[in-house]
Structure formats: C-alpha cells, structure tokens
Specification:
Chain lengths: 247, 247
C-alpha cells in the first residue's frame, strides 16, 4: 500500500528537534522519495538551498526485511542522494541500514547509523519519528482506524525520467500528494537540482504546487489522472516513463 | 486560544515510545484536562484500568511563565490527578515543573522531572512531544498554516461539577472535541472514576462518545451549543457550572 509519512522528530546526539517539513512518499510498489525542506531556513547557506536533505530511489534501491510483526529492517542504497549529487563533504555514502518499529500509537520509529567519515570510522546514530498520514486528504490528517481503509487504498502513480535524456528524476504520487526530484546529470551543483511538492485539489486536474525549487520545475508532471503503466508523458520536452499506476 | 494536543512520543529513560492515545485539552481561559488511555491495554491491570495517566485542573492549578519567544514554563499543581486519587504508590505529588519549547515544525517539546520517591530523592526526567491539532475537525488534523486561523478561534466551553454534590468533575470542549473526568469524592478506588472523550458531529447536537470509562458517564454533559458562562446544567441529577463559554 502507498504511504505518506510526516517526520515529527529527528534526533542526532542527545536532544531531538524538528526543523524540517519532511515528507516521505512510498509508492505501492515500494518506490520512494523523501523531501526535507526547512520550515525556517536560517542563514545564507540554508536560504540558497533550503533542504536538510533529499533522497529517492526505486524499489531496487532498498531491501526490506520483516524482523518481527512490528519491526522491519530497511537497507537503503539511494539512487538519488542530494549529498552525493553535491559531493557534500563528511556525508554518508553507500547503504544505510535502518530499523523501523511500529509503535502502538501508529507512529514509526526509525533508528540507524550514518558514517559521514566512512565505514571504517565511528558512525553517528540517529532516531527519526514518522507519523503516517492519510494521503487521500488535502490537510495533514493522521492515519487512524477511522481512515485506514481509504488511506491504504490511495492512488499510487510513479513517473521516472526516460533514459538518455540527460536528467535523473522521479515523481511519486500517493493519494493527492506528489513529490518529485529532477537533477541534471553531471552538474553536481545546486543549479542542477529541482524539487517539487504538489497536491491535487477538488477543483483542478492539475496539481497545485505546495513548493518548488529550481529553474526547471515546469518539467515535472502535474496531471496524474488516467495515466497507465508504460505510458510515456512529455512535459515541456522532457519524457517521463510511468513505471507504476494504481488508480 | 483553545488547544488540542496529541502526544506523539513519551520518553523516560533512554528509549522513547508511545503506547497511549493521549490528548490534552486546554481551554481558552487555561483550564486543562489530559486523558491518556492505552491504545492496546496489556495484562489484567491495564485491562481493568486502561489509562497510563489522567489529570485535570483549572487555570488556578497551573502557573505559566514565558521564558523566551518559543519557550514557556508551566508549573502544574493538579486539582485532579488519578495517581493521587487512587493513592498509587511511588507516584509524584505536588507541583510538577515543566518546560515547553515550540519547535519550528510546530510541535511542542515538553521536558521536566517527576519525583515518585519524594522531592528529597532522585527525580526522573521525562520528555513528551505534542502535536497540536485543529480541534474544529473531526479527524486528527495537524495544525498548520492552512487551518491555524480556524483552529485558534475554535469554540471553548468548560463545565465544572457544582460544589456540594459529592463529586469532582471537569469537562472541557475545544472545537468539536470534549474530554471530561468525574470522580466520586472519598472513594479512592477505580470504582469512583469516570472518563469520557466525545466529539460533536455534523449531524447531531449531542456529542458522540469516542470512549468512556466508569458507571456514571451518563452524568457528563454532551450538549455544548448555546450554553453560557454562569449557566448551571443538570445532567441526570448532577449539576455542572459553566465556568467558561466562547462560541
């Protein structure tokens, strides 16, 4: 089933906090994207690039193993990682092993370690707490017994930039919510990056933009209804393959 | 402004968790009630009394001090504390000093210590993370820029059991959500306790019960519209004073 998760807490070291409006979209087939824009960017660096982090992958870029009824291991080997794209120093590369525990309240507690100095050096433990949302709602509605059935059967559509275009990109629609990245290959600077978060409304078949970053956001798909697996969608000259469509 | 807060994490010791569906209601004038029923009661003790904790007070039972723009101290001296009522051993008595920090994400991080062995002995630090909800919605809708104005102007009504009735009781309505306790004086056992969480719907002027505990829940008010400050409401023989009404 598709999922839309809002992070409510992030902890590295002794004190938790949450400075981002982080949403992770997971498609029915297990493709994923996580965009983590700062709520209040502070200073020139965050203002120029207002993201704590962003990454994405297909279901080939994650290994999921059930450990116990309420515990899952997820080993991520991101296809796209903004730190790798920008070659940001002292950030993790390669597989990140994470453990996800579902609390009785319904939240998901993620724990793991990153190795910004390489795997031969000391890792840094992290904790993230995620609140599942009902992606069929426009507002940030917590998933609960009341809406579980509709949330779990939400629409799930995934667009991936066609090979040979000179770009990498993935846009995942879960319910009404879409998140996407589009990166120009071989640029390695923030100029090559584009991100979008958009939302379908009752009144329009074109998703409303909630935020966008980058000069080429007009190349993201914003019409999701009726697309079928295998379709190729041209958006202002960029071709996107529909690699998943449940609707 | 009234508030409805859902706890998303509770930490004592090294590992956070959340086993309760804890909601705290705070009225416009600062009266408060927090009910913390377990999501999945485990074992005979929790099944007999399925609450992690419950407490309530009027605005006379809390001192609020602004420390910084995003930090508030709240010193609680509960009028009603289920642990005190039941005389549960090794639980805190007296003032609890807490600090509330508003994160950039909008969540409230509460820290403090309790002294289950008395103030002359070692305290126990705790951390609780609260997600503000829009109380005007039936679903669990996170408060956000989108709904802040309606959330902050939500209805706020408070009923308090009249003196001399042999009961203590408080019921707080914030938006569509009501939470109440009713305790028979001088019983000191779970037989003397009643709790209710109820919600107004579009279709009825009588609030729907979301959960109730105790044999005398028919004595809780369940009609909130139109009551005025100073009104006395009789519910199956029990008189409640309306000590606050903004609607």
């Amino acid at each position: 089933m598709p999922a839309l998760l809002k992070r409510v807490a992030f902890q590295v070291g002794l004190v938790p906090n949450e400075r981002a409006f982080a949403l992770s979209s997971v498609s029915n087939d297990g493709h994923y994207i996580s965009l983590r824009p700062f709520v209040k960017p502070q200073g020139p660096s965050e203002e120029a690039f207002p993201f704590e982090w962003a990454f994405a992958g297909t279901n080939k870029n994650v290994t999921v193993t059930q450990v116990k009824p309420n515990v899952v291991n997820q080993d991520f080997n991101f296809w796209f990682d903004v730190n790798a794209y920008l070659n940001t120093p002292n950030t993790h590369r390669g597989v990140i092993k994470t453990t996800w525990e579902t609390w009785e309240s319904g939240c998901l507690a993620e724990t793991g370690s990153v190795f910004p100095e390489g795997f031969n050096n000391q890792g840094v433990a992290f904790f993230e707490l995620w609140q599942p949302l009902d992606p069929t709602k426009q507002e940030l509605v917590m998933k609960s017994e009341r809406n579980e059935a509709t949330a779990d059967s939400a629409k799930s559509v995934v667009f991936k930039v066609a090979e040979g275009s000179g770009y990498d990109g993935l846009l995942i629609v879960t319910g009404k919510w879409a998140q996407g990245f589009l990166s120009k290959q071989n640029v390695g600077k923030i100029d090559g990056l584009n991100f979008i978060r958009a939302q379908e409304t009752e009144t329009s078949t074109v998703a409303d933009v909630l935020f966008e970053y980058g000069d080429e956001c007009n190349k993201f798909p914003r019409r999701f209804n009726g697309v079928k697996l295998g379709d190729v969608v041209d958006v202002n000259g960029l071709k996107w393959d529909v690699i998943e469509s449940y609707q």
